[in-house]
Amino acid sequence: MRRYTGNGESQRAQPRHSLPRGRTIIGAAGLMVLGLVLGACTSDSPVHTAQATTERELILAQGPDATAQALSAAYQQMLSDAGVQTKLADPTADPIAAVLAGKADVAIGGSSAMLGALSAVPQANATAETTTSGTAANSSPVLPGAPGVLDTGATIKALHALAPKGFAVLDSAAAERTGTLVLTQATSAAGPLVNLTELGALCHRLDFGIATKDSAELLALLRQSVSCSPKSVTELDDEAASDVLPVIGDEVQIQATTVDNAGIIDNALVQLEDTAALFAPQSLTPVITTEGVGQDAIKAINKLSAALKQEDLQDLNRMVTGGDAVDARSAAHDWLTDRSLLVAP
Predict the structure, then answer these.
(1) Which of 161, 252, 266, 299 has a CA 20 to 30 Å removed from the CA of 117?
(2) pLDDT by residue (tens digit) across 102-147?
(3) Where are the alpha helices (DSSP H) in 6-106?
(4) What is the CA radius of gyration of the chain?
(5) Nearest residue to 143 (alpha-carbon basis) of 281, 12, 254
(6) pTM above the 0.85 mark?
(7) Where do the segments described as Disordered lie (predicted)?
(8) Which residues are bridge partners to 207 per DSSP?
């Protein structure tokens, strides 16, 4: 087992965010949690609060990496622009947990990670019911070849069916931070290797780069899903894992990252297809405490989520990573201004 420590700068602006801490890679226990709830609610279900306006300062949790911090800064500035008093909390490894623990009022997290966390909150499953088609609400549609794994739409539907006491899930964005495996076009063509199903036969010839914190679980899922035992595994520290330098420099032939990594596009990397058995969908979704939060805040948050597409998230990632990176607050303000989302830019 080798270890790779990121050092030096790429000649082009390379992303430097880490894999989401919210369990992007899931094991058997995670699959069981994902299958717990499926209801008829959708992402645009209204959130009922007692007040029209927010009358206290809201604290926004933010994740540990630059992209997560730019996102939190964007939502914070959107709320401030709507007249809501806000403050960003110090970065934390688990923003969702910060809200559930009462340390913050708003967090932006991945849909599967949030579904697992909120399912444990009292009365979370109160809205589970039979759907209009007559299918039981807690039945779990799964992906072919990936038993127990909810797809993107089903995960969002299950998440918005929850009614966690004291909290509310707001509209999910089209953008996501789902895990993926990437390789160069040369490696893909030499295989040939395009689909996860092709990986088993080639795996013993390939070096993998995986973030240290995710290595054991991802390797177990690779063995389980496609009988893949890599030639070697290089464990990447947070800096190296957030970049794509290991794979474009041929330090490894396959690297685990997330789909918001702008380095994938900037370096014309190939994303391995059909990796749903390895990575749970992580559509970006806000969760709030309902205590003292008014409809003005909810409207501002949902407005930003509606505007946030995958290419926007990649642009934010590109702005806050690499040698010419800007700080998260500046990147957020520039993006909001460019999209004309602020009343007073």
Answers:
(1) 299
(2) 999 999 999 999 999 999 998 777 554 323 222 222 333 333 334 4
(3) 28-34, 66-81, 95-100
(4) 20
(5) 281
(6) no
(7) 1-21
(8) 232
Find all residues with CB under 8 Å of 340, minimum gap 6, and list them. Answer: none
Supply 150's token pair.
């909810």
Q: Given the structure tokens 């993998």, which residue do they identify?
A: 208
Q: Tell me, yes or no, if the two domains 2-20+179-271 and 28-176+282-338 fold the same way.
A: yes
Give the number of other CB atoms < 10 A from CB of residue 292: 15
DSSP symbol at 273: B
Query: In b/e form, how buried is each residue of 134-167, taking b as 16+ CB within 10 angstroms?
Result: eeebbebebbeebebbbbbebbbbbbbbbbbeeb
pLDDT tens, position by position, 39-49: 333 444 467 66
Q: What is the distance, to the nearest Å, from the Cα of residue 86 to the centroid of all Cα atoms in its chain?
A: 23
Least confident of 49-53, 96-100, 299-303, 340-344: 49-53
Give residue limits of the domains in the chain: 2-20+179-271, 28-176+282-338
Q: Which CATH number fits domain 28-176+282-338: 3.40.50.261, 3.40.190.10, 3.30.360.10, 2.60.40.10?
A: 3.40.190.10
| The residue to which tokens 């390379």 are assigned | 14
List b or e across 8-17, with b for residues whose CB sees 16 or more CB atoms inside 10 angstroms: eebeebbbbb
Question: Which fold is adopted by the domain 2-20+179-271?
Answer: D-Maltodextrin-Binding Protein; domain 2 (3.40.190)
What residue type is 119 in one-letter code? S
Look over the chain and give the mean of its residue pLDDT values, rounded to a whole number.
Answer: 83
Backbone angles phi, psi at 70, to 5 degrees: -65, -40
pLDDT in tens, 73-93: 999 999 999 999 999 999 999
